[in-house]
Amino acid sequence: MTISISPTVTERDSAPTASPGPRWEAVCRYDRLLPERGVAALLGDVQVALFRTHDGTVHAIGNIDPFSGAAVLSRGIVGDRAGVATVASPVYKQAFDLVTGRCLDDPDVAVPTYPVRVADGLLEVGLP
Amino acid sequence: MNSIDHRELVVVGHGMVGHRLVQTVRDRDPQGTWRITVLGEEGRPAYDRVALSSYVDGVSAEELTLPATPDPLVRLHLGDAVVEVDRDARLVRTASGRELRYDALVLATGSVPFVPPVAGRELPGCFVYRTLDDLDAITAAARDAMVAERPGRRSAVVVGGGLLGLEAARALRSLGLSPQVVEIAPRLMPVQVDEGGGALLRRLVENEDLAVRCGVSVTGIAEQRGRLVATLSDGIELDADVVVFSAGIRPADTLARAAGLPVGERGGVLVDNRCRTADEHVWAIGEVAALEGRTYGLVAPGYAMAEVVADRLLGGTATMTSAALDMSTQLKMLGVDVASFGDAHATTAGALEVVVNDPVAGSYAKLVVSDDAQTLLGGVLVGDASKYATLRPLVGAVLPADPVAMIAPGGVEIGADALPDTAQICSCNAVTKGAVCDAIGAGAHDVPAIKACTRAGTSCGSCVPVLKKLLAQAGVEQSTALCEHFTHSRAELFEIIAGTGIRTFSEVVEKHGTGRGCDICKPAVASILASLGGGHVHDGEQAALQDTNDHFLANLQRNGTYSVVPRIPGGEITPEGLIVIGEVARDFGLYTKITGGQRIDMFGARVEQLPAIWRRLVDAGFESGHAYGKALRTVKSCVGTTWCRYGQQDSVGLAVALELRYRGLRAPHKFKSGVSGCARECAEARSKDFGIIATEHGWNLYVGGNGGFTPRHAELLASDLDTDELVRVIDRFLMFYIRTADRLQRTAAWIEAMDGGLDHLRAVIVDDSLGICADLEAAMETHVAGYADEWRGVLDDPAKLERFVSFVNAPDAPDPTITFVTERGQPVPVPREPVAVGMPGVRR
Ligand code: SRM
Ligand SMILES: Cc1cc2nc3c(=O)[nH]c(=O)nc-3n(C[C@H](O)[C@H](O)[C@H](O)COP(=O)(O)OP(=O)(O)OC[C@H]3O[C@@H](n4cnc5c(N)ncnc54)[C@H](O)[C@@H]3O)c2cc1C
Ligand code: SF4
Ligand code: FES
């Protein structure tokens, strides 16, 4: 089976034209991700939560839940709020925007986001 | 230093009205002008006498007790009656010899039951029906009669067929006796109901297994062979184990009489419209007061009097209004609805009566209107009193429609908007429509909020439907929508999924919702699919719907680790089982604790350790305890007949059987059970969603209990069931709950919110009034037959196991953020500032 993944390439994902650019690291095969579910990846000492939404898009945000300090955002429920793709923290249930990392329940809180792309069926995360 | 000079308020009687007075004065007197001393003859603080009869159905004295907060300015002396009022010295003396000086004295002594002077009325076995002590005595006598060794029915005679007599008769029936009601008037409830309504009422009451004799009186009572015989005026003799007098009440005015205070012609301390007696320092309120000569035997006028006196004591100018003296009543006992309101007997000059009598449907309705047929004056409803809540507030107002149309079957529905602002919505607490609307305007956006700020709906509850209508009318949407993705309630969604056969979330949300779902609707749909027998909770798309606990079949802890709870049915475990749990915990470095649910929890497991831990547990014969699921948790037990010298039945055996029967059953919320071997209740069964207490003859089943956030005792649903009957009723109970409850609604809240409450529930699942019981039982059989251990299902399936990794690119690397310290010899997460959040899981 071959997978062609055009919808995953969003503006944010396209390789930046300017200076150094992110360091891309492969984490797993794209098809290892279940639709609407996350996985965690360990990149050096950075924990990233990766999600595949129902239309095939992949998002990467920080895995650490800022409210509890636990590294668990990858285990939250994926869905949407008013059309914005979200994950809900499994600890205290705050929703985070998968694109911007912003917490929808507390505008002062956000988690980092990371660029992702799929190359040769492999999922790659870009680190600064 | 105590520099405030309190004035002394002495209240005689801690009944419903005395209690209301104390609460109201304290609410409105934050400076503490008054120090209050209450003297009560009964040995317990004020309780809800209106709900007295629920005591025989298992509602406890504590639950009936009226709420009061400890208050340094209120002293309560219970079990100490006032025996003398010395008005010159402004002193009261009590039976125990206390002497208390007063600046103001309030008599709130209520009434005493009237016992007609028939021979034999003092015999053992004769009772009145007024206090909890009376009910204790009646219950004991009924129990003695039940256990006496002789053949035949145990029976009771109730003297008086008024509101209270019918309540007493129903209570006696609940205690296992066959009651006969003897009423001297030609019809039942002669005060409230007219002839036509009385005739229908009698038929409906007789259908409920109560024998009725009207137009005769009891002329004497005698003892014969250890039982009582009541002789009636027509010569008939009735055998009885218990006789209850319920022939009316008389104001408890002896104290006042002895103190020389004027009393009314038919008794009661005479008071003016400020509720003041002839002595400016003495007030009388409640049933003992004769307001302008007339006494009132209902709680609402008494509450109004308490409010007036409280206001006066604090310098106000309140007076009694005629609206506060509303004598409307609604009886919702015996499964027969009766309501009467306003001028029910059409005594107003020129009044017209409009009657709709439907003997086939068993309903009778009469409206009394003014001579021009424009104004509603009163009415009587028998059989179907659903219109009471909207009709009663219209008394005195211009009718919004033709009177016949308003009571005809299928006629006009009267909207709450037709009511004038002055219409009294809650007669128990004298709250007007205007007051309710003001509260809504000020932000009270649901019934509990309205209750909290107006007191409307907090007594008999019959006005709650109108409160809901007023909310709707104010545009406050009482949304039942699950979340932004579904406009349906959970129960509606259940019907859709069950009815359409749709078995994936994607299809449900595409066809019946919007967007892609969220952490509210996804687990709700997952739970519905699981209740409908959807296979393993991780099969197919279901995996993505589960909350993290269900996704990893373990409970997430605050540091990102999980806890592991194997099932220990009934709390019974072998030494070998204990050893395995001990070894597993030791080998994986887990913290162990005995839970509140009679089993053992192992904490601190990292996600990648879960399969190996469970491999060991499953191999030793353990299975998932579903501590993570909205599903059956535990069935607690006590040792029962197995060991205990008081045990009546095998409570451990039953608890184990029930836990195994309902294990893995997904529901709108978690549910719990307990089985106690006797009424000592060591398993705390009555704090559970369904609790079972052994009796000599079988099992009593209680439902709707809750510990947790809002504790509530379970109520008796059915008694003396054998084990098969018991299981059948529980099957139906749980399946009915699963189909109709809201998301995250425990059974206690579900029953509370149900129209008709416990009675309706009993009708549906015991009497099969909806004809769905066979269906419910079949659904449970499907669940029982289809049960499989979820953890074994994971261990046997490599695809499911693949999920249990810490990192997708480093499956065995432990999460570096997880660290432990040692506390009392065990590993615990590093302490951290507590996070300010609400109750987990109760967010709507
Ligand atoms: C472990 C335990 C405490 C203990 O150390 O004893 C416990 C622990 C938790 N309870 Fe509990 N409850 C435990 C017995 C109870 C009991 C006592 C009982 O069952 O007899 C109650 C009161 C009885 C009742 O439920 O009516 C109880 C009332 C709650 C509530 C409040 C429910 C309510 O209706 O108000 C919550 C919150 C919720 O479910 O929404 C809760 C929630 C929780 C959660 C799930 C909170 C959370 O989301 O993390 C805790 C998870 C523990 C874990 O990881 O295993 N727990 N919890 C007990 C596990 C029992 C078991 O063997 O399964
Ligand atoms: C079974 C039953 C069902 C009812 N149902 C309804 C209903 O549906 N709707 C309704 O509106 N009303 C109903 N009522 C009536 C309602 O309970 C009373 O109207 C209300 O309780 C009156 O309150 P009260 O404070 O005046 O009297 P009570 O509640 O009777 O309180 C008076 C208290 O004063 C005490 N006392 C008396 N003398 C002394 C003394 N010398 N010294 C110290 N203490 C003394 C008594 O022991 C008693 O505790 C019902 C009553 C009963 C018994
Ligand atoms: S939910 Fe509250 S009461 Fe229950 S275990 Fe946690 S902290 Fe204790
Ligand atoms: S009418 Fe009884 S509580 Fe409102």
UniProtKB/TrEMBL annotation, chain A:
Residues 1-21 are annotated as: Disordered. It comes from the Bacteria. The lineage of its organism: Bacteria, Bacillati, Actinomycetota, Actinomycetes, Pseudonocardiales. This is Nitrite reductase small subunit NirD. Keywords: 2Fe-2S, Iron, Iron-sulfur, Metal-binding, Nitrate assimilation, Oxidoreductase. The keyword Ligase does not apply. Pfam families: Rieske_2. Residues 25-125 form the Rieske domain. It comes from Pseudonocardia xinjiangensis. InterPro entries: NirD, Rieske-like_NirD, Rieske_2Fe-2S, Rieske_2Fe-2S_sf.
UniProtKB/TrEMBL annotation, chain B:
Keywords: 2Fe-2S, 4Fe-4S, FAD, Flavoprotein, Heme, Iron, Iron-sulfur, Metal-binding, Nitrate assimilation, Oxidoreductase, Thioether bond. It catalyses: hydrogen sulfide + 6 oxidized [2Fe-2S]-[ferredoxin] + 3 H2O = sulfite + 6 reduced [2Fe-2S]-[ferredoxin] + 7 H(+). Its EC number is 1.8.7.1. Residues 629-765 form the Nitrite/sulphite reductase 4Fe-4S domain. Pathway: Nitrogen metabolism; nitrate reduction (assimilation). The keyword Iron-sulfur applies. Residues 557-618 form the Nitrite/Sulfite reductase ferredoxin-like domain. GO terms for molecular function: nitrite reductase (NADH) activity. PROSITE patterns: NIR_SIR. Its cofactor is siroheme; [2Fe-2S] cluster; FAD; [4Fe-4S] cluster. It comes from the Bacteria. Pfam families: Fer2_BFD, NIR_SIR, NIR_SIR_ferr, Pyr_redox_2, Rubredoxin_C. Residues 425-472 form the BFD-like [2Fe-2S]-binding domain. Residues 328-394 form the NADH-rubredoxin oxidoreductase C-terminal domain. Residues 8-293 form the FAD/NAD(P)-binding domain. The keyword Heme applies. It is an enzyme of class 1 (oxidoreductase). Belongs to the nitrite and sulfite reductase 4Fe-4S domain family. Catalyzes the reduction of sulfite to sulfide, a step in the biosynthesis of sulfur-containing amino acids and cofactors. This is assimilatory sulfite reductase (ferredoxin).
